[in-house]
Amino acid sequence: MKPQKILITGARQGMAREYAFTLARRGHTVFATTETDEQAEELRKEVTNANLDIHVDRLDIRNTDDYQKGTEFKPDVLINNAAIGESGPLAEIPMERVKANMDTNVYGTLALTQTIAQDMIQRQNGRIIIISSIGGRMVIPYLGPYAMTKFALEGAGDALRQELHHHGITVSLVEPGAIDTGFNERMIATKYEWFGEENLLYTDGKRIRNFERLLTGDQHPPQSVTPAIIHAVESQKPKARYITPFWPYTPLVFFVTKFLPDRVRDWLMRKMAK
To answer: What is the pTM of this model?
Structure first.
């Protein structure tokens, strides 16, 4: 496949930084974007030190004025990676935090996708990759605010894939498991900005910590996601979904979501958290 022009959001660190660097080394033209100017400057220094030809700039997906940078780049491939995470009991989390999570992960992602897709539709060619999560298939209790956004992206990806296929545009969902980027730890910490002894579910503390260990106890390195991204970018027939890394998540998710009744799945989750 010939080199592609690739726009990546949320590329300051973690998974996106890893596959931005890898894709550049594979000969693609990469536009790696960050939420803030300060983050962009830090990433530029790392790009220079790595002797890579990557264009770096700020593109805050909540700022529609920033979308112009993406349209001027005219990417062949859009990788929607930018996201934030909120945690805590869904029955008590302040609604403004739920809205903020949805604004970034869902509405910001879709708004930028719509903007970039206009040029792809006119060209009748392009690829859209949406970074979802295993949490968009299976919910870990007390991470509901974040999981809601990923379930929404799963639906968005399915709709876009079917609507844009006959316009020469492929849409893939990438569903990472627990990846060691620091994102999960930061997400877990967000609830303690509002969740305290005055909350009715504060007595669930031990149970909450047990579920958190499911997420942070055995994480995989950021580069474990890169093979799925490379396939989605370069394959003649990219998949609709990539669960990554393949082991142990693919067989686990397939079995749990396809064969187990909800009550059994809930029981198993409770057992795993003990």
So the answer is: 0.95
